[in-house]
Design brief:
This protein has 19 helices and three strands. By secondary structure, it is mainly α. Among the domains are: 107 residues, no CATH class; 113 residues, no CATH class. The protein starts with a helix and ends in a 5-residue tail after the last helix.
Length: 419
């Protein structure tokens, strides 16, 4: 059987009534071994596009819907010939199917449309961002992250997306972040935020925790805007309660060559909440020699490392209000089989939604603060916390053993075993 006829057979099985045939079809598209089936010819691609109009069967058990598989085939074509056909012909099929797509399917569809980059695809993409129920915020961010700053399609992309900057939803921030990224790469002649200073100011003045990302994007944009009104906003942002926003404002002032800004950035390196990022920004500006000597202290570097880890958007999204050094010692560390200096910290988010939240973080091996069942007791001993982290690292390295047995082994190897 040729690959072309095989793909058509798989598509027919995906939309058929036979459950076993549908299982077989999904297995062809996502095999445990070997390469997945892909559209490799123009005829293959045409068959995939035509299948968007087919009615999905009612499944007796939970599995991905056939349309999800179609979007995957469009997203990962097997040849330039198939990719070119998808770019020419798939947008109308995706637009027609949009009302029936589920949330995760819409996320893939948005990514496909951005990658197509045609006028029709980008206009529909922008229209979806303007609708409150058009797409989930994370799907929008994921799709915009697919935009290559070096793309030749910017003349189509930004005019299509610019109206989103005036929308009330969170998609406006995602588009502003894209514009900032393009401006950083020197791909914008004029930043679209220049005509929206009033909105940038509103985001900067907001004290709502949910609008921290908006404030950061607004101040980032100010790095690319000159003139007195923009300069006044940069100075205003220096008094924002968030250390991340203040740091972004200092960097924006550096980008605009404002007097004293580089020394302000050097002083920011001494704030452990933003030290790591401030140091990176100085390096980007070619000013590494301005890093204060005190910022090279090992304990300060460890504290700054954990602060940055906790402030990552995938963790707490901001530094804790309190942090104390709980333990510092040289140990032969079983997961890496070498001697290293380890730092244990206890931290507290005083204003956590359910009341103060205290945790433990380790720096010196894998920087991490464990959660859930793996979380060490912050009221216990530092030795037990080190043993917990040791066991977790061994598990991450692929060691398969019962957790309590691993803990006991780590205690012995670290010299913490009783008796």
């Amino acid at each position: 059987m040729s690959k072309a006829s095989r793909l058509r057979q798989v598509l027919a099985a995906l939309f058929g009534r036979d459950e076993q045939q549908r299982d077989w079809a999904f297995e062809q598209l996502r095999p445990l071994r070997g390469e997945p089936l892909q559209a490799r010819s123009r005829e293959d691609a045409r068959a995939v596009v035509e299948a968007f109009a087919w009615r999905s069967p009612t499944a007796k058990r939970r599995r991905p819907r056939p349309v999800h598989a179609l979007l995957g085939l469009v997203l990962r074509p097997g040849s330039k010939e198939a990719a070119d056909f998808f770019r020419e012909a798939a947008t109308p099929a995706i637009v027609e199917a949009w009302p029936t797509l589920e949330s995760d399917e819409r996320g893939v569809a948005l990514k496909v449309l951005v990658l197509f980059g045609t006028r029709e695809a980008l206009r529909f993409f922008a229209a979806c961002l303007l609708e409150e129920d058009g797409a989930h915020e994370l799907a929008v961010i994921a799709a915009l992250n697919e935009v290559d700053p070096q793309t030749a399609l910017l003349d189509e992309l930004l005019p299509a997306l610019e109206p989103v900057l005036d929308s009330p939803g969170s998609s406006a921030v995602a588009v502003l972040e894209l514009a900032n990224r393009l401006a950083d790469e020197e791909r914008l002649a004029t930043h679209p935020a220049g005509s929206r200073l009033e909105r940038l100011g509103a985001w900067i003045r907001s004290r709502e925790p949910s609008e921290l990302r908006s404030a950061l994007a607004a101040v980032h944009a100010l790095a690319h805007l000159d003139g007195r009104p923009a300069s006044a906003l940069r100075k205003e942002a220096l008094f924002h309660p968030s250390p991340e926003v203040r740091l972004q404002a200092i960097h924006a002032r550096c980008r605009q060559d404002e007097p004293g800004a580089e020394l302000e950035l050097a002083r920011a390196v001494l704030d452990p909440r933003v030290s790591k990022r401030a140091r990176e920004l100085l390096e980007m500006l070619g000013k590494s020699h301005l890093v204060p000597a005190a910022a090279s202290d090992p304990e300060f570097l460890a504290r700054s490392e954990l602060m940055a880890w906790l402030a990552h958007p995938m963790e707490f999204g901001r530094p804790p209000q309190r942090m104390e050094l709980w333990d510092r010692r040289l140990l032969r560390w079983p997961p890496t089989e070498d001697e290293r200096e380890l730092f244990l910290y206890r931290y507290t988010y005083v204003d956590a939604p359910g009341g103060p939240e205290t945790g433990v973080g380790l720096v010196g091996s894998i920087t991490v603060s464990l959660s859930g069942d793996a979380r060490p007791d912050p009221e216990g001993s530092p030795e037990e916390a080190l043993a917990v982290h040791c066991a977790w690292e061994l598990q991450q390295a692929g060691l398969r053993a019962e957790r309590q047995a691993l803990l006991a082994s780590c205690r012995r190897q670290l010299g913490f075993a009783k008796g």
